[in-house]
Amino acid sequence: MANNKKKKLTPTQQEYQELAKRIEPPRPVLKNCLHAFITGGLLCLIGQAIQEMFVHWAGFTEKTAADPTVAVMILISVILTSFGVYDKLAQWSGAGTAVPVTGFANAMASAAIEHRSEGIVLGVGGQMFKIAGPVIVFGTVAAFVVGILTWIIQGGGGS
Amino acid sequence: MLKGHQSWVFENKPVILGTATVVGPFEGRGPLANDFSIIHEDSMLNEDSWEKAEKVLIEEAAKLAIENAGLTKEQVQFYVGGDLMNQIISSSFAARTLSIPYLGVFGACATSMESLALASMIVNSGSAHHALAGTCSHNASVEKQFRYPTEYGSQKPPTAQYTVTGAGAAIVSAKGEGPVVTSATIGRVIDMGITDPFNMGAAMAPAAVDTMEAHFRDLKIQPGHYDLIVTGDLSKVGYEIACELLKKHKIPMQQTEYKDCGMMIYDYDTQMVQSGASGCGCSAVVTYGHLLNRMRKGELKRILVVATGALLSPISFQQGESIPCIAHAVSIEAGGSIS
């Protein structure tokens, strides 16, 4: 694919792109990974702490505490998004704030806030899944494929 | 008057009678804060959408520029303007409020100099006594249209640029006192096959160099003719590439000072802007605010402003198209120094 694209370029364009590549600062991948590791880990630690609180103080079991924990994490993310803090944290932490459930909540909330001016139905309702939508679609498709594969590998019959 | 291949020389020396710049809070915290006419504390400007806020920016800038020129809006014959929004709504809606006969133009971030060049040509040809040139951009409305929702947490690469929230307007007149517009070079569309919308500087740099080269060739001058040459909004990455290209094309830029508007408006140390600034408002507020203020103070005699624009749409880049770019150059001289 990349080679294919290159071939379409004229020699001048290719020469220019080489020059541009040389000058452009690359993405600081290692630093980004480290930041993502720290913030992603920190978010999980906070999540764990909240879960422990539900277990020890609110009488949930290890299993049933998961749902309220996720709800609290989502709430925190939405509040931070609404106050305009989440996107600033994300510039530093990258995947650390994008991958956990808080990132998903941010994707939904930010789109909903952004398109509020176009009305509740077509604005908020229609655009809310703009970023999160593909995650749901391809998540479902992937789950379906994996499900079928598991079923075949396990020999077809009922479980 | 046409000179060379793609340049106009304004022999009647249209005068920039008044200018105004209106910016948002983030620009107000930058190093050029003292050069702006109005700094808003709220980036929503008390409106209920980003788009409306952007419209208010240009409305205010236009009204103030007319006032600073000592005119009323009835005395201004034409308004030439554009912006980055789909169907240039900010400018068109502002033109509705101003009710000045209006020509909407689009040259992405090069609109600032495109509108100034056209307004100057209209005045120079005697087709108007006073013309208004103005352009604006708003960080949030641009983010929303071209990228992600403003509050979405995406990590920007070091080549990304931050769109300026700001509007700049200028009144170009046939008579009066002030800096004069002496020439303009209209750029070609240049596409070097860059497809990354987070790397506009690299996409636009060749267009800036092409227009500068054409300007020097058409007018038979050297960079040394100017005290200062600024490019629109290439920012750090694009600026470095442009310097390299200029060296390769053997243009003696060392004769003068060469800067970039995208590197002047924010403080790299305290403001998180990656490569620098961009947007229609960037070259407009830097030129109409900072640079013309310096010229009025006598610090600059002759400048060349080369505004650059990336002519992409949110759909074209999703379809994998490369980014075509353009640059327009306008030369401005301090009043009275006619050579």
Principal-axes geometry of chain A comes out as extended
The helix-strand sequence of chain A is: HHHHHHHHH
Strand and helix order of chain B: EEEHEHEHEHEHEEEHEHEEHEHE
Unreliable stretches of chain A: none
Biggest chain-to-chain interface with counts? A-B, 42 and 32 residues
Q: Termini of chain B, distance in Å?
A: 17 Å
Q: Name the average pLDDT of chain A.
A: 91
The average pLDDT of chain B is 95
Q: Given the structure, what is the number of helices of chain B? A: 9
Structural class of chain A: mainly alpha
Q: Portion of residues in helices of chain A? A: over 70%
Proportion of strand residues of chain B: 15-25%
Q: How many β strands of chain A by DSSP?
A: 0
Give the amount of beta strand of chain A, in percent: under 5%
The strand line-up of the biggest sheet of chain B is: 1-2-10-15-14-11-12
Helices and strands of chain B: which structural class?
alpha/beta
Computed Rg of chain B: 18 Å
* Largest pleated sheet of chain A: none
Cα-based radius of gyration of chain A, to the nearest Å: 22 Å
Oligomer: heterodimer
